[in-house]
Structure formats: structure tokens, C-alpha cells
Amino acid sequence: MSAALDTATPAEASSRKLRILYSHRIQSRDGQGVHLDALVQALRQEGHEVRVVGPAAYDRAELGGESSWISGLRRALPAAVAEVAELGYSLPAHARLMAAAREFRPDVIYERYNLHYLAGAWLARRLRLPFLLEVNAPLAEERARFGNLALKGLARWSENNAWRAADAVLPVTGVLAEHVEAAGVPRDRIHVIPNGIHLEEFPEPVPRMPGQEVVLGFVGFVRDWHGLDKVVRGIAEWRGEVPLALTVVGEGPARPGLEALARELGIAERVRFTGLAQRHEVPSLVSDFDVALQPAAVPYCSPLKVFEYMAAGRAIVAPDQPNIREVLEHGRNALLFDPSDPEGFWKALSRLAGDPALRDSLGRAARREVIARDLTWEGNARRVAALAGKLLP
């Protein structure tokens, strides 16, 4: 698959100011919401008008929260009924989009893909408008793999229908682009646009001064599969000159077990959780890391935390897999480990923990990568606008 990061110059992107109708079905304020809000903000900063149409629950949700009645309804309904209801939601969503379109008169429709959500595709076809579809995961495959999908044929049909209806499909990684192409989308309609950051939120990093401990850091929703228990055990066994500590910025179901493990190993004071952090707090929290951790990653995702670590100029440890290698290179701007090696993660981590010069050089190279490739939300807005402009008559 040859789809690569799109590179639109500011002149190309700004030649026409667009009216963009942004459609979504997000209910919760999590990483999805970060992507949505950041891209919309960047498009507006570039001078485009953006009208966002989505569930009212999203506007009311707090950081890390979601609509309780929606999640309760999903649990109460039989799986097959809930999936048909998901598809049925496209009907009132389409009506809301149509009402917005009549008032707003958009040039293009931009939608964040969600399984069984076809409102934007229907409207684009009806109004004969260019349709751009952002894809963050192959949701039919993902939900089938985790066993919470009853109507697999319906899911594949709705996913393929949405992807093939788009004039431009915007997967967040080249790995995900292969899924899109395999679904029958022509290669020339596929344009990889990964996650990003607002660079101005991350000041030029200052080298960390030697201190009483080396701080290992993680940002995100903490689940068992992230493997942070290995970090806690490694901290307890560490015999380096400077002790190690772990700071976790976020919440998640794995937190109680990690805190209990730290108490059991006698290092509770060196395993710290900040709890949920507001977006504006993240840059300063990451700047206090010596080593930034991406212990595991879904094979097709574009991890937001990686871009935050890079912008902050932190030394990164991450798995050596294709989607990660799209932005990180072992030995140049990160240390990548073999996920199949049970000791690989800790070997890379401990190497960085004991080598401040290597931490500094990798961190500086990571930030240079962000700047050189414009891995920012503003850069993404320019890419989106340039693609949309080419689709207009």
C-alpha cells in the first residue's frame, strides 16, 4: 500500500475558504473528542467555516465521560436489536444534517466514521457534495474480534458502504489504509492523515536536570494490556544509580491493580497517578517525564500520546510495529522494542533510564520530526482543506 502522509502547502490549502459541515456520532469526551475538537479548531484558525452536527450528549459530556442513558440502553437491549438501532439512528441524524445544510449551505461534508453511521454519505449523495470520511479504526473487524457484534454481515455492509461512498477516505495510518483499500476503495481516494498536536502548546524542551529519580511517564486510559505492571515490577527490581519512578497521567480500570502491586512491592511512593488531566495540563505533565512510554499499541492506530511525547521532546519507548514506524525510527528518534520479546520493553526502557545523553538526543530528534513533517492539527487542517478543494468543481 503506497498511501502516504499528505503534504499540502499553506498556499494550496488557503486558496479557497471552505464551508465545512462536520458530521459525527461521538458520545464521549475521550481521545475521539480530542481529535474532533482539535481538527475543528485548526480548520477555523485556517479561515474555514465549520458547522459541527452530532449528538447533544457530546456537548454535555465531561472529560472522560459519556451519556449514561445511551450506554445503559445498549446494555439492556439484545445485541442484534442494538445494532439495528445504531443503523436506524442514521435516519434522524440525516434529517438534522439536512436541516443544517439548508441553513449553512456547505461546500463539503466531512464525517468521522462510526459503525452503522451513514448520515453523511446519504446527504452527500443527495446534495451532490464532496464527501470526506475520517477513519480511525476498522470497527466492524474490531467489534467482531472482541465478541460484541451480533450481525457481522450488517456491520461489514454498512462499513463498506460508508467507505466506498467517500470521495476521499482519510485513515490515520498506512496500516489502516490497507484495510480501506481491501474493502474496495480505489487507492487514489485514500489519503493518510495521522493524529497531531498543537505545537504552540509544547514549548521548546529544556534538558531534564539530573535529579533524585528518573521519571517514567505514561499518558492515557490505563488498561491491563498496556503492561504497566511490568514497569512497576521493574522499578522495584531496578538497581541503577538513580531510582526510577512512574507517573501515570490518566485513569482506567488497571489503576487499582497497579496501586495494589506498588504497595505490595514497597514502592507506592514511586508510582503516582494524576487522575484525569485537562488537555491544557498535559504538555507540562509530559515535560516532567524523563522517559515516555507507549508499552503497547493496536496495530492500526495512530496513538495520540506518541505525538504529545514527540512534541515535548521526550525520549520514547514504543513497540516496533508498522504503524509506529510510520512516525518513529529506532535509534534516531525513539527506542523501539520487539513486542514478541517478553523482555524487550524493559530492556529498551532500562537502557534509556541509565543514559541521559541518549534520552536527550532522541527527544530532540523526535521534536524535530514533528516540525519537519508538520505533524500538527494545523497541518492536518491544511491537508484536509487542500483535498477538499481539489474535489470542488
Automatic annotation (TrEMBL):
Spell out the coiled coil positions from the record. Answer: none
Q: Which InterPro entries match?
A: Glyco_trans_4-like_N, Glycosyltransferase_grp1
Where in the numbering of this chain does the Glycosyltransferase subfamily 4-like N-terminal domain appear?
30-200
Superkingdom assignment: Bacteria
- CDD domains, A to Z: GT4_WbuB-like (cd03794)
Q: What is this protein called?
A: Glycosyltransferase family 4 protein
Q: Which organism is it from?
A: Sabulicella glaciei
